[in-house]
Amino acid sequence: MMEFVLFLGLCFVLGGLAVASNPSPYYGVVGLVVAAVAGCGWLVSLGVSFVSLVLVMVYLGGMLVVFVYSVSLAADPYPEAWTDWGVVGYGFGLGLVVMIGLVVGGASGVLVDSGTADSASLLPARLDFSGVAALYSEGAGLLLIGGWGLLLTLFVVLE
């Protein structure tokens, strides 16, 4: 199981690098899908199924709409691929920054088991079962602020 979780973590990092290092939205969307699916699988392996469902529905759905919009605006007949020298150099630089961060931050902390959503707790229910209730009870103000920000962003983009 640990090897599978490390594989999902590697896929997540590589998907994020693919999104960040490619200037063309045609290829960046592939990295987004890989990163979202790997992150979702990683969260499911930890036992946090509610957050995983939110990741797939909200993040991936919303970002794919943004990528479709940017692809329709770009309309590039010859987009830059991952094999172009600029994209390879940028991806190598991002990978180098990630590796230096792991070395400086101590990669041994990554392999420490922190438990799952339902281990060693005094709560009678799993932690991810109370996610929706906490979102609407304590997070109502943040939901309103987020909705207002999205509406404002929509008007700015349409202007």
Description:
The protein is an all-alpha fold. The protein has a domain at 1-74. The chain has helices at 2-21, 25-46, 49-74, 85-105, 131-137, 140-158. Helix 1 packs antiparallel against helix 2 and helix 1 (2-21) crosses helix 4 (85-105). It is globular.
Quaternary state of this entry equals: single chain
Give the N-terminus to C-terminus distance in angstroms: 50 Å
Rg value: 19 Å
Enumerate the spans where pLDDT stays under 50 for 5 or more consecutive residues. none
Mean residue pLDDT: 75
H/E series: HHHHHH
Biggest beta-sheet profile: none
Tell me the number of strands.
0
Query: How many helices does DSSP assign?
Result: 6
Helicity range of the residues?
over 70%
Shape call: globular
Q: Strand-residue fraction?
A: under 5%
Structural class estimated from helices and strands: mainly alpha
